[in-house]
TrEMBL record:
PANTHER family: SHORT-CHAIN DEHYDROGENASE_REDUCTASE FAMILY PROTEIN, SHORT-CHAIN DEHYDROGENASES/REDUCTASES FAMILY MEMBER. InterPro entries: NAD(P)-bd_dom_sf, Sc_DH/Rdtase_CS, SDR_fam. It comes from the Bacteria. Pfam families: adh_short_C2. Belongs to the short-chain dehydrogenases/reductases (SDR) family. This is SDR family oxidoreductase. Gene3D superfamilies: NAD(P)-binding Rossmann-like Domain.
């Protein structure tokens, strides 16, 4: 694999499993030094050990809850101190809680917003403070979802949160474009990760999900990591404030495929 991220320092939130873990593998494979975040240190240890080693330094664990202002401070302090810098921030941590919307619990709604929205804002703020102080042209990639566009009944907080992060990214992209700091979003469709165990592990439900995706299969975490890599690299040097849908065609209104005449 190329070493196109050699010398780059990358912080990835929610990297203990799923897409965040795949992103950590991706950046380490391409020569970057990575700081992996998640809430629990012990869940991050096996990920750290599995990462390809690089010659310029060690990868590092920066455990902590991204919805808490105080832990954001320590996550960034430890990341920047251990790696002696920060060039790329991948805001990936996120979760969802299903419920019919008339029964939604305020604490659940607020909990999803705290991680998926406030967490992104706090991480971006911390990265910006460091980058502006040091004149670094940093890059942020936020992991949103096709549900920033496609409504998701029974997941009101999740849908709302992903719509919100799209606007966070577009607003920050505009605010900091002149200083060379870029913000973009990847919006995955249905990806095989632990968040989706309910249908991934049930052959019937898996088929049901696959059948309504134009490419007739869910995506793999690596396919999202590849898109994050593009948006964090020099190859996307003139792209900011955009969403890259990585969804096998899910946002193409698949019902019209054979139904247009
Ligand atoms: P996952 O549940 O497998 O992993 C989520 C990660 O976030 C875990 O490492 C978890 O520990 C971490 N996390 C959760 N709350 C946290 C907190 N408060 N502080 C720090 N870390 C926290 O999920 P995934 O499928 O890999 O999803 C990752 C991102 O991709 C999420 O933002 C999700 O919304 C988005 N996404 C996933 C899919 C999909 O189909 N899997 C589709 C669209 C978008």
């Amino acid at each position: 694999s190329s070493k196109r991220f050699e010398g780059q320092k990358v912080l990835i939130t929610g990297a203990s499993q799923g897409i965040g873990e795949a992103a950590a593998q991706y950046f380490a494979q391409h020569g970057a030094q990575v700081a992996i975040n998640g809430r629990k240190e012990e869940k991050l240890k096996p990920v750290l050990e599995s990462l390809p080693k690089i010659s310029s330094g060690n990868h590092v664990i920066v455990a902590g809850d991204v919805s808490q202002e105080t832990s954001i401070d320590s996550i960034f302090q430890k990341s920047i101190e251990s790696m002696r810098g920060l060039d790329i921030l991948i805001c990936n941590a996120g979760y969802q809680i299903p419920s019919p919307s008339e029964q939604i619990k305020l604490a659940d709604f607020e909990g999803v917003m705290a991680v998926n929205v406030t967490g992104v804002m706090l991480c971006c703020r911390a990265a910006l403070r460091y980058w502006l102080e040091h004149g670094i042209k940093g890059r942020v990639v936020v992991n949103s979802s096709v549900h920033q566009l496609i409504p998701k009944p029974h997941y009101l907080g999740y849908s709302a949160s992903k719509g919100a992060v799209d606007n966070i990214v577009r607003t920050l992209a505009l605010e900091y474009a002149s200083r060379g700091i870029r913000f973009n979003t990847v919006a995955p469709g249905a990806i095989v990760t632990p968040i989706n165990d309910s249908w991934v592990k049930d052959p019937k439900q898996y088929e049901a999900v696959a059948s309504h995706i134009p490419m007739k299969r869910p995506g793999e975490s690596k396919e999202i990591a590849d898109a994050m890599g593009f948006l964090a690299s020099e190859e996307s040097s003139y792209i900011t404030g955009q969403t890259l849908y990585v969804d096998g065609g899910l946002t193409l209104y698949g019902d019209f495929e054979s139904n247009w005449s």
